[in-house]
Amino acid sequence: MSVYQNDEHMPYSDRVTVSVSQEGMIYSFALIITESSIEDSGRITFVANNEFGMDKVAIDLLVEPSSIPVPTNDFVGDPAKVIIPLQNTIVKEGETARLRGRIAGFPLPDVIILRDGLEINLEFDDHIEFLQKPNGEIILNILDCSPFDDDEYTLLVENMAGIDSCEFEIFVVEEPFDMNESLDRRRQRRRMRKLKGGLQMDDDDEDLSERQMRKLRRLR
């Protein structure tokens, strides 16, 4: 994957880094720019390519002048860290998935939730309740769960001193609340997502489905 700013290649450095995680054939990534300045503003384009093709997406980044003094090199912070990760959760269709965790770091880290590699808008999504307390406790409630919510998620926390993450899954058991049938439907939805993306299911995906079944048995 390559990153461009205003159509010019953006080289990675100690200040500009990319964090990548993989789950099967799904890749999630985050572009991290520390000590950002107004010069970082512009159109940021992400280009992914392999032997089968190429795709890209662009966003507009605006860095506004800060009224807060910029930390000096003498500033010492505590890196963002996930102390208590969000746990895999089983919920019946129509119920609320309730997840709890704890993070630490100074300054208090910002929190990003990714679903299948895409960021969830925690502020404007009426389907989700999110609370971050000053002591680092985080509360995530997903209301009225449906098969759409049955997926893989990532909790990403970051501050100017560091970044950390954890992964968790939400299993939505559909009526008549048979977990075996729900897992089969989850496997079918996963296959459809891959086919729509031009990918094929492979042995790793089948192994992943078996691991999910074992995980469901442990969670019961």
Q: Can you walk through the features of this model?
A:
- This is Immunoglobulin I-set domain-containing protein.
- Keywords: Disulfide bond, Immunoglobulin domain, Repeat.
- Pfam families: I-set.
- The chain is of the alpha+beta class.
- The chain has three domains: 2-61, Immunoglobulins (Immunoglobulin-like), CATH 2.60.40; 78-173, Immunoglobulin-like (Sandwich); 179-219, no CATH class.
- 16% of the residues lie in helices and 46% in strands.
- It is built from two helices and 15 strands.
- It has a five-stranded mixed β-sheet, covered by helices on one side. A four-stranded antiparallel β-sheet has the order 2-1-5-6, with no helix packed on it.
- α1 (179-196) runs antiparallel to α2.
- The radius of gyration is 19 Å and the shape is globular.
- The model is unreliable at 199-205 (pLDDT under 50).
What descriptors fit this protein?
Immunoglobulin-like, 2 helices, alpha+beta, globular, four-stranded antiparallel beta sheet, about 220 residues
The radius of gyration over CA amounts to 19 Å
CATH hierarchy, class of the largest domain = Mainly Beta
Intertermini distance = 40 Å
Beta-strand level of the residues, as a percent range?
Answer: over 45%
* Mean of residue pLDDT values: 81
Largest sheet: 5 strands, mixed
* CATH architecture type of the largest domain: Sandwich
| Outline | globular
- In terms of per-residue confidence, which ranges show pLDDT below 50 for 5 or more consecutive residues? 199-205
Q: What is the CATH homology-level superfamily of the largest domain? A: Immunoglobulins
Structural class: alpha+beta
Order of helices and strands: EEEEEEEEEEEEEEEHH
| CATH-derived topology of the largest domain | Immunoglobulin-like
Spatial order of the strands forming the largest sheet: 8-15-14-10-11
Helix amount: 10-25%
Number of domains: 3
Number of helical stretches of at least 4 residues: 2
Per DSSP E runs of 2 or more residues, the count of β-strands stands at 15
